[in-house]
Design goal:
Blueprint: H1 4-17, H2 30-41, E1 53-55, E2 61-72, E3 78-88, E4 92-94, H3 96-107, E5 110-111, H4 113-125, E6 133-142, H5 143-147, E7 155-163, H6 164-167, H7 169-180
Parallel strand pairs: 2-5
Antiparallel strand pairs: 1-4, 2-3, 3-6, 6-7
Helix pairs in contact: 1-2, 3-4
Length: 192
């Protein structure tokens, strides 16, 4: 549960600490705005969605470009990007919207990208549907690297393998090759 009153007090203290007047017109509502946005973007601590499975029709399922926005736990600055998920179903395929919600759940916490990638892989792999293998790849830009320190807009990639992807080099290579293909044409609005 997010304590919005504590957030409002903390934001007011930060404004005062940097020499601002929290009562000036442009800042008067800032503590409330920050508390409201933190409630939304840090909702992953309370999200508890159930996975839904469907009849097994595929040998491999690939979900690409699941967009996410998160906050780095080291500087409380945003990092953002996308997650690709590949899994080998066992007896059922998992509902796509549920996989997207898993990504959102872990992204909506104070986070480290590598940990987030691991948490997503582990939740899918350890779900009641017990896929034979899971591969999760996240790519992100970190504002803490862009705005401060090295001031470099590099993209960080983190990859986690579970199950059959840890032992079957050919299957893992096949999945990585499929992820490397440019499928941006799928993002074109086919109705427009």
């Amino acid at each position: 549960m997010i304590d919005k009153e504590k957030i409002k007090k903390a934001v007011r203290l930060i404004l005062e600490a940097i020499g601002e007047d929290p009562e000036r017109p442009g800042l008067r509502e800032t503590p409330q705005r920050v508390a409201d946005i933190y409630e939304e973007i840090l909702s992953g601590y309370t999200d508890q969605d159930e996975l839904v499975g469907f009849e097994h029709f595929a040998n491999m399922v690939i979900l690409r470009n699941v967009r996410f926005y998160s906050l780095c736990e080291h500087h409380i600055l945003p990092f953002y990007g996308s997650v690709d998920i590949v899994y080998v179903p066992n007896n059922a395929v998992i509902g796509v919207s549920k996989i997207v919600r898993i990504v959102q759940k872990y992204a909506r916490r104070l986070q480290v990208q590598e940990k987030m990638t691991t948490e997503i892989a582990d939740e899918i792999f350890n779900s009641e549907y017990k896929p034979k293998g899971v591969l999760v790849m996240s790519r992100a830009k970190h504002m803490c690297m862009i705005m401060r320190g090295v001031k470099n807009p590099s993209v960080i990639t983190s990859i986690v393998y579970r199950g059959i992807f840890e032992t079957d080099n050919i299957l893992r290579s096949q999945a990585m090759m499929l992820l490397a293909r440019n499928t941006d044409l799928l993002e074109v609005d086919i109705f427009g």
